[in-house]
Structures are given as structure tokens and as C-alpha cells.
Amino acid sequence: MQVSSLNEVKIYSLSAGRSLPEWLSDRKKRALQKKDVDIRRRIELIQDFEMPTISTKIKVSRDGQYIMAVGTYKPRVRCYDTYQLSQKFERCLDSEVVTFEILSDDYSKIVFLQCGRFVEFHSQHGHYYKTRIPKFGRDFSYHYPSCDLYFVGASSEVYRLNLEQGRFLNSLQTDASESNVCDINPVHFLFAMGTAEGKVECWDPRTRKRVGLLDCALSSVTADTEIDGLPSISALKFDGALNMAVGTSTGQVLLYDLRSSNPLIVKDHHYGLPIKSIQFQHQLDLIISADSRIIKMWNKDTGKIFTSMEPEHDINDVCLYPNSGMLMTANEDPKMNIYYIPVLGPAPKWCSFLDNLTEELEENPESTVYDDYKFVTRKDLENLGLAHLIGSSLLRAYMHGFFMDIRLYHKAKLMANPFAYEEYRREKIRQKIEETRAQRVQLKKLPKVNKELALKLIEEEGEEQQVTKKRKQKNLPSLLKDDRFKVMFENPDFQVDEQSEEFRLLNPLVSKISEKRKRKLKLLEELEAQEQEEEEEPEGKASDAESSESSDDEKGWVEEVRKQRKLLRQEEKVKRQERFKEDQQTLLKPQFFEIKEGEEFRSFKDSAKKQKLMKKTLGDRLKLEEKLGTLDVSDTTVGSKQATFRLKKSEQQRKQQEAEKQHRQERKILRRSASHLKSKRGRGRLFR
Questions:
Q1: What is the pLDDT of residues 240-253, one digit of tens each?
Q2: Do residues 237 and 200 share a domain?
Q3: Helices 510-534 + 451-471 axis angle, to 10
Q4: Which is it for strands 54-60 and 9-13: parallel, antiparallel or unpaired?
């Protein structure tokens, strides 16, 4: 049994471990269990809980005693009795099952929708009746008050089959070209169907008229989502009388209140895969949505992730055992997975021993799935010199990095930095010594890091205390005593760099104030040295270093800024001269480049630019052209994008435009000079 944890939610995988083949004899199975520890420790909750190749759908009967699953190959249905923890029966079918429904409380009435347009009915003894619908079906729902089956599929019609009369009724004519899923509300029996156009149509079975239409495709597209095409509806589920969850083919889940056309919340799986299943967990107000890669549990009010699971194989269906924390999945694998999550609820009564087992495991915690692995990024791999292992079986890609064996990580780290442990040990010893020193009775001393900043804060606190005493106000907490800013005066990484350009320009008067503080620091250091030599407490001395401040603060500030700028320019000149000398010393070697046939050589810059552009992706090239103004991208009303290109001008056109521009400027200058001469002549005549 494997244990994994995400967001402090423990997930127990009950189907983990190797399974034994059916054709082995009991004697050989016992021998293998004695030899192999993994086989001995595995938990086989339900015997032979698997399919020959893959499983497609899994459901639980309303009384909770039977679990039914369909799969291939050959197409078959298997029924498992939870009270006996074993398989009750297996029936083979003529074609693959698209979906099925258990109409009774137990397994006595089952309906199968098959690939070849067939609808097959099974009773307790086996096959009962078989009929056919006009078009290929994709989903169906059972309307209990009228005993009608509603079939949706590759047609604009919804076919109705009455099980009491045993005949087809008039079908419902919809506006959709095709329908993918459907569901009936368990409270007021409203029939809803999801279309290929991304809409949900709601029908009243009593009047057989459409009462509502939701455009989920438009609502699923938000500012953060990226879609390739028009989203279609791939999953649909009612919750109570008013709530409905809709899953799209692009990986979004929308939660609706039936009284509003806008979704309450839109949750994106960020995988771009169709949503396969949606379940509601009422105890914790969770929604369990699954695509073929991941199962996500999130709060239906806030959308916050509760936990998630990523099985090894693609998921086809998810089934939540009612009123418990057990979850079952049908996968693209012979074995059907069973998960137990104690936070969601207790174990079912037929396997109540799981609660005791998990409690014992929590009391004696063992290593979880990821305890033997280390998560590393690409940068970490480059620092360790293991970048060449990317793509091999030693690294497993996960999110923005990789998982690697912890033993390999420790070996590589030891080889990359053999003295890392010694440095870590010295640092820990130093921290322990500092902690013991802090417990002693000490004088008020300045910290080792950012001494000038600490001195400034002490001075400001003294001034504030005097003001608050006069005004009879409460003292504000000190930054030096605050634990949130403790690291700023302990860690050398937080040391203020006074030689940086930003500090020198933004703090021009710091130099004058810092001179006073430096004098105080020197006095304090001398006092500390005397303490260490004499081992006695020195008496405080009044410092005569303080001088009267000049009244011309503004002039001093301007002069200081000018000085700092001059110094920065001089430093830049020195750096340029050093670079120039280095460039002169370096010897350039001639390089030869081969030009392809049919191309003309213009300059090295053009070829370099072309090579860079060719290496970039189409998206980067479009962004670059959009910045240059040669491309205009705009959104259309349908949801697609429209791109408008402008051709680049040739060199002759550019030269011609520049010549015309220069000609216009010359003509303007001539006109201005002519008007100026005329005005001068007119004034001369008046004076005469």
C-alpha cells in the first residue's frame, strides 16, 4: 500500500503493488508470497478487481453492495460483491459498452448502451432484451417518474424509449447538431443535455419543451485560459435542485446556479484535456473533477484546491463510493485503482478494517512515495553536472523540474562540493554558540550586519520616545526586537551596499550623517575592545564628535548629488578604458562562412539576425513583428484571432521617401526665408 500526501491530505493507494496471474496454482502463489516482500505486503481489497485489457466505466449500486465495471477485450461486464470481497459474476457482450446504468437497487436491472447503436437490457439471470436506436448513442439517462430512457448521440434528436409500454415515443427536436452527455435532476427531474457547440439545453419532460439554454463555451473562456478550438460539453452533473456542474473538452469545469446564466466559478485543469467525470462530495463541499491525466478535488465555493491525484495510467471514469472516503477509477490498464482518503469520510462498512490500518500507519509513520526522491530544477542539475541525464530513466519530469533518486543526488552533491558538509557543520555550530550567548546577560551591542542602519534606528527610537513621553502616547515596537526583521541584522546577504549607484544617488546626504555614525561606531568598538581587555563594564563617555549642522541643507544636497555623479562618470570612463585595453590585447582570428546557392551576401549582421529569427518560435516571431508594426493581431467575436500583415519596404522605397522628406523640409525653409525678407522690406518702406 502506497501513501502519498498533497496539501497535508493523505491518500492511500490500495491497489498498488504487483498482481499475480490467474493461471498460477495456489501452491505457487503461496511460494511467491513467502519469497517476495512486496507481494506479501500488498492489500487485495477485492479479489480479481481488474479487466483483461482496459476498463471503461465503473459504478456502484444504490444499496452499496455491488460494484459493476465494464471493459475489454473481449467486451464484458463484471459484478463484484463487496460483502464477499470477490467477483460475483462475469458476462461477455457482443460489442463494446459506451456507458451503462443500474436501474434497480441491486444488479437485477441493468441497461447497456453499446457501440453498434444497440441497447441491451440485463436482468438478474442474464441477457433479457436487445433493441437498436436510429443513430449512434453517446449517453443516456433514466427518468424514473415516467420510466423513459433519454438517448443522446450523433443526431439533433433526443430518442425516448418507454420501458413500461415497451416502445419508442416521439423524440425531442433540439437545435444542436450533436449531443455528447445528458443528465436528469434527481429533485425536480429537469432533463439537461450538453451539445458539441458548447451549449447546455434544459428540457421539461412533462411538457417536452425547452425551458433554458446556457452558452458554456463563451463563459469558459477567461483572461487566463488558452483554447485551440470551440469547447464542447464533455461532462454534466446535477447537485441538488439548483446547482449544476459542466465540463468542457478544453479542460474547464463550470459551476452554475440554474437561476443564473453566468457561472458561479470556472476551474481550469490546465492540461487542455476533456473532462471525463464530475462528482460532488457533500461532507466537505468539494467537487471531484477528472480528465484523463489528473483527478482534482476543489472547494465549490472558493475554487481552492483541496488535493489531487495523478495515476500512472490514463483515467476513463471515476466513481466515489457513497458516504465514505473511498474512490475508484477505471483506467487504460488491466488493474482498476482503489484509493482511500480518510479526510473525505470513513471507510465503507464492508472494509471497516481500513480505518484501524490507517490509524496504525499514522501512529508509526513510514516513508511516503516521495521521501526517497529529491525534486530538482534544471539549474540544480547544471550546478551538479547532471544536465546530460535529462531524458533518461534516472530523471522523471514533474511540473517545472525533475524527481531523482535521493542517493544519486547526495553522491553528485558530494562530488560537486566535497566540503559542503563541513561548512554546514561550522555554520550550525556558530548558530548554536550564538543562541547560548543570547541567553546571557549582555550589554546593548550593535549587530554584526547593517551596524549603521541599526544605529540609525536606535537614534530614531530615542527621539520618538522623547516625543511620546511629552504627548503621553504609547511607544511603537522596535524593528530591532521584531522577529520578522531579525534576519536583516544577522544574515550577511542583507548587508546594504553603500557603493552601489542607486544608494549613492538616492541618498546624497547620507555621507554627512554617516560620518557622525562612523565616529560613534569607532567609539563603541573602542569601548568593546576595552571590555574584552579589562573584562569590566566601562562608563559611558559623551562624544564630542557631533557638530552643528549647516543651515544651507539644499545647497549641500545639490553639491553632494553633483559630486556623486562626477564620481560615477569617472568610474565609467575607467571601466571603458579597461575594456578597450582588453579588446586591443585580444587577437581576432579570421572565420570563414559558407553561403548557400541562390543567396546574396549583404552583411554579417543580416545573416546573424536571420539565424536568430529562424531559431525563434512562430509565436516569438509574431510578437516581434507586432512590436515593429508589421503585424496586427485582433480578436474576433467568434473567439478566433485575425492577423493583418504589412509588407516590409524595400531599400529603393526607403531612399525615395527620405529624399521626398528632405525636399519638403528644404521647401519649408525657403518659404520661411522669403516671407521673412518681405516683412523686412515692408517695414523699411514705412520708416522712409
A1: 889 999 999 988 99
A2: yes
A3: 100
A4: unpaired
